[in-house]
Specification:
By secondary structure, the chain is α+β, with helices and mostly antiparallel strands. The protein contains 6 helices and 4 strands; from the N terminus they run ααβββααααβ. It has a domain of 102 residues. α4 runs antiparallel to α6.
Length: 166
């Protein structure tokens, strides 16, 4: 029986030693990893990130929209399937100054857009492709007016916020 007690005490001592050794190794590894992260020079990586950020052009995150005050209404010729079209348009522009230019030249822009829409056939405007073509043509027309009057191209996109055909 005395032998069994000595074996049990020997196993307890060896298991305690094993746990202490494992904990010591884990603490040493954790300390080494912590020292590595704190002492390794990361400035070289930070400098390259800063240089990349500085080399990219500054992108304006602010968005400006110009909505025409009234919807545009166009009458189609008597022979066409549609008699009337009403469309509301919003423009995405670069800056606040472009909105002031659009307000200033609103009558000329509205006139040119009305002429452009009235030249379209109602059959073309019934399809998505026809509406997309009209949207691109409106953008080109507005850009042409602003280029002529201000020398700038501030219009980025054209959006139809309402499109009714009867």
């Amino acid at each position: 029986m005395a032998e069994k007690n000595q074996k049990a005490e020997g196993e307890k001592k060896s298991s305690k030693k094993l746990i202490i050794i494992i904990l010591s190794v884990v603490l040493i590894l954790a300390g080494a990893a912590g020292a590595y992260f704190f002492l390794v020079d990361d400035d070289a990586g930070d400098v390259s990130e800063v240089e990349e950020a500085e080399s990219e052009p500054a992108v304006s995150t602010e968005v400006f929209y110009y909505d025409f005050s009234k919807p545009l209404i166009v009458n189609f010729p008597a022979g066409s399937r549609m008699r009337l079209m009403q469309v509301s348009i919003s423009l995405l522009v670069d800056n606040q100054e472009a909105i002031e230019d659009l307000k200033k030249h609103d009558p000329m822009i509205r006139n040119n857009i009305l002429m452009l829409i009235s030249a379209q056939s109602s059959d073309e405007l019934n399809s998505r492709e026809g509406k997309e073509t009209l949207r691109q043509a409106v953008r080109a027309e507005v850009s042409a007016v602003l280029e002529k009057m201000t020398g700038k191209h501030p219009v980025k996109e054209v959006f139809f916020t309402s499109f009714v055909m009867q």
